[in-house]
Amino acid sequence: MVTELVDYVVGVDTHQDEHTLALVQAATGAVLAERTVTSKCRGYAEALRFASQQVDAARLWAIEGAGHYGAGLARYLSERGETVLEVGRSPRGERRLRGKDDQLDAVRAARAALRSEPQRLRSEPLPRPRSGECREALRLLLVARRSAVDVRREALVQLRSVIVTAPDRLRQELRGLPVQRLLERCSRLRRSTTATPDEVAVRLVLRTLARRIEAATVEADELEGEILVHVRALAPRLLDEPGVGPIVAAQLLVAWSHRGRVGSEAAFARLAGVAPVPASSGKTTRHRLSRGGDRQLNRALHTVVLHRRQHDPATREYIARRTAEGKSRREATRLLKRYLARHLYRQLQNQEPLLA
Questions:
Q1: What end-to-end distance do the CA atoms of the chain give, in Å?
Q2: 86-95, 223-232, 265-274: which has the minimum mean pLDDT?
Q3: Integer Cα distance of 159 and 46 in angstroms
Q4: Who is most buried in 4, 185, 238, 304, counting CB within 10 A?
Q5: Neighbours of 242 (CB within 10 A)
Q6: 27, burial (CB in 10 Å: exposed 0-12, middle 13-18, buried 19+)
Q7: What is the pTM assigned to this prediction?
Q8: Would the pLDDT of 6 be above 60?
Q9: Could you report the per-residue pLDDT of 62-119, keeping only the tens digit for each?
Q10: SS3 sequence, the chain?
Q11: 74 touches 130 (CB < 8 A)
Q12: Residue 54 to residues 114, 339, 351: CA-CA distances in angstroms?
């Protein structure tokens, strides 16, 4: 248990403007002191002074939201040699039952850290928050690209919907065109002095949407190129895996982050939402996939499985063998995802340490 490694835990409930701290004794779980600081450099320094003045013994920081509002505090503390542990939010049912405020959440974060298990050996580090400049750059690039792709997809749906109700002549001209030619044609539409008001509006909307799609496509491609540069610097061997492109590899790196963040391949599978969950009843013995975990990481694994089902003979043979044993195609896919999580986790763990 963590109590074997430290004497005190500082639980932190993070928010945009301020963080609430609770100092908890590891042996008893008693709350010794509480403090609220601003979420700025001055507040981070005050938080460290608060902990140093209260105790002069082995301690760790349990930060809720270390990847979001608590990212600045986690970096500040790590740079000064403090041990930082990332903890998740308390379950909603527990908050409903026992109440919720910032002080309670800070205490819960500390006690959640006390309940967690350290790594296999005492000398190994506790799971740390995501770290590294290149990995943070990857995370931000993925966020921006995802936004550009969403804009493109939504605008394309809207454009096709407008074409359905467009005037007959314009609809007949556009409806059979492939996407690229459709965008080129719509982006060149002009106002007509002889057109009715509704046709003028349709032309303007189609032109606007087409140019929005083209701009979002250029933006997504540019961001993907930048992502590829970082992936090649961090883990080039990932790109040799069938079905693993720059986006999937970047999502794997962001979720895994560094050695020590995810303690085992089973923990990585749980993080990805591909760990088997018992779903047996009566004479039926089966498992299903978890619906929790990092859904973006789960989506990345699903993308790899879809690619391998289409292009990898070994994967198709595996699915055929499992279905012949009586498993459904969905169950065979679940097994593939679990295997893939194990394999890619080992790839990440065994890679040569490159840039952070």
A1: 29
A2: 86-95
A3: 53
A4: 304
A5: 11
A6: exposed
A7: 0.75
A8: yes
A9: 999 887 889 899 989 988 889 888 887 766 655 555 556 889 999 999 988 887 755 4
A10: CHHHCCCEEEEEEECCCEEEEEEEECCCCCEEEEEEEECCHHHHHHHHHHHHHHCCCCEEEEEECCCCCCHHHHHHHHHCCCCEEEECCCCHHHHHHHCCCHHHHHHHHHHHHHHCCCCCCCCCCCCCCCCCHHHHHHHHHHHHHHHHHHHHHHHHHHHHHHHHCCCHHHHHHHCCCCHHHHHHHHHCCCCCCCCCHHHHHHHHHHHHHHHHHHHHHHHHHHHHHHHHHHHHHHCHHHHHCCCCCHHHHHHHHHHHCCECCECCHHHHHHHHCCCEEECCECCECCEEECCCCCHHHHHHHHHHHHHHHHHCHHHHHHHHHHHHCCCCHHHHHHHHHHHHHHHHHHHHHHCCCCCC
A11: no
A12: 19, 47, 41
Q: What is the percent of the chain where pLDDT is above 90?
A: 52
The candidate with the shortest Cα–Cα distance to 14, out of 75, 66, 80, is 66
- Calpha distance 356→209 (Å, rounded): 40
Residue with tokens 């969950």: 277
Contact between 188 and 177 under an 8 Å Cβ cutoff? The reply is: no
2 and 23 Cβ atoms separated by less than 8 Å:
no
Amino acid letter, 17 = D
Q: What whole-number distance in Å separates Cα of residue 156 and Cα of residue 152?
A: 6
Residue 110 CA to residue 188 CA, distance in Å, equals 60
Measured distance CA(145)–CA(139) in Å, rounded: 10
Backbone dihedral angles phi then psi of residue 287, each to the nearest 5 degrees: -130, 160
Long-range interactions of 89-93: CB distance < 8 A, separation 24+: 89/64, 89/65
Measured CA to CA, the distance from residue 176 to residue 284 in angstroms comes to 50
Reported as a single tens digit per residue, the pLDDT across 22-51 is 999 988 889 999 999 999 999 999 999 999
Q: Quick one: tokens of 164?
A: 């359905």
349 CB-contact burial (10 Å; exposed 0-12 / middle 13-18 / buried 19+): middle
Encoded tokens for 236: 């080039």
